[in-house]
Amino acid sequence: MKKSIILFFSIVLVIIGNAQNKEQDYYAILEVVMPSDVMLEVGGLTTLPNGSVGVSTRRGEIFIVENPTGAAPVVRKFA
Asked: Cα separation of 44 and 42, whole Å?
């Protein structure tokens, strides 16, 4: 009986340990440097046909990030 309980908890710990995957295990996470005067509270993201990324903020601003995966992405305020 004692071995059964130990086996049960061992299996539970293995399952919990395997469930602790991170986003990096499934997605490439890229950091884009935004201008320092922008308080970026992202409300929405979309990819554009040319490969740029549209970013909307909680405050109603819209930014376009050109070349988001490149070494020097360009951020410009659209609206």
From this structure: 6
